[in-house]
Amino acid sequence: MEELEKTKDATNEQVKPAAKNFDDEKINVSKYISTDYDDDEFQTMLKLYEKTFSVIKENEVVKGKIVAIHGEDVLIDIGSKSDGRVSINEFANPEELVVGNEIEVFLEKIEDKEGQLVLSKKKADSIKMWDRIVDAQKYGTIVKGKCLRRIKGGFVVDLSGLTAFLPGSQIDTKPIRDYDEYVGKVLDFKVIKINNQIENIIVSHKVLIEESMAGQREELLKTIKKGMTLKATVKAITDFGVFVDLGGLDGLIHITDLSWGRINHPSDVVKLDDIIDVYVIEFDEEKQRVYLGLKQLQPHPWDNIQNKYKISDKVSGKVVSLTEYGAFIEIEKGIEGLIHISEMSWTQHITNPSQMVTMGQLVEAQILNIDFDNRKLSLGMKQLTPNPWQSLLDKFPVGTKQKGKVCNITNFGIFVELEEGVDGLVHISDLSWTKKILDVNDFVKLNEVIDVVILGIDVANQRISLGHKQLFDNPWDKLEEKYKIGVETECKIVKPIEKGIIVELPDVVDSFIPASQLAVAPVRNFGELFKFGETLKSEIIEFDKTNKKIVLSVIEYLKDKDQTEIDEYIAKFKLPRKFNVKDIVEKTRSFEAEQIDFRIEDIIGEEIPPVTPVVPSAAPANIPAEKPEEKKN
Question: H helices of 425-471, where?
Answer without folding.
Answer: 440-443
